[in-house]
Amino acid sequence: MITREDLVVKSVTDYAKNQIRDWGYDENVWEWRERFDAEEMDPFTKSVIGAGFDFTDQGRAAEMGSNLKLRTYHIEFAVFGHSFDLGRNISGALVEAIEQDGCIPVIDYGDDARPVLHAMEVLGVANNRAELADPQPWEAFLWIVSAQVEDCYLPRVP
User: Fold this and answer.
1) pLDDT, tens digit, for every residue of 12-28?
2) 133 part of a folded domain
3) Which DSSP state fits 35?
4) Based on the structure, what is the number of domains in the chain?
5) Is 30 within a domain?
6) Given Cys at both, which of 38, 47, 71, 107 links 82, Cβ 3.0 to 4.6 Å?
7) Which candidate, 36, 129, 35, 138, places its Cα nearest to that of 91?
């Protein structure tokens, strides 16, 4: 069985990758990383993107008399731009896509047909440049896209 958090992480990751491609950035100029290791960032030849998730919200009842659960997640996308413009533009494309759609679909990866279970509502999104005092080469053009989403779902019974 795939956990709720795994469904959300995979769905958000696939959504972000597709949006970056749809905005005209092919994988010749960026790559997605599940984790960041300083040794793997050298040589720094293209922009690097990854996401972090905060699932600490324990949730609450979505409605009385129902098992529906409502949880709020905080997602941060780190965009390590290979250049100032590329970092700003890729992070900006992510923000625009998330704002325009207003939701992020949750996919059922346990089903080979990959149906959309539902969509998480976007509560807000922001884009900020992280200016570090003494950055490594890959940190010089770091942008952080923060999104807050609300997930309303029926918990699975094992």
Assistant:
1) 999 999 999 999 999 99
2) yes
3) S
4) 1
5) yes
6) 47
7) 129
Q: DSSP state, 139?
A: G
Residue 158 domain flag:
no
Q: What's the longest Cα–Cα distance across the chain?
A: 56
pLDDT band (50, 70, 90) for residue 158:
low
Strand (E) positions, the chain? 30-32, 47-54, 60-61, 69-80, 103-107, 116-130, 142-153
Query: What predicted TM-score, i.e. pTM, was given to this entire model?
Result: 0.90
Q: Specify the residue for token string 């992280």.
A: 130
| H or E element at residue 91 | helix 84-101
Burial class (CB in 10 A: 0-12, 13-18, 19+), 119: middle
Q: Give domain status of residue 41, yes or no.
A: no
Q: What CATH number is associated with residue 78?
A: 3.30.2000
Rg, C-alpha atoms of the chain: 17
Residue 84: domain span:
4-35+46-153
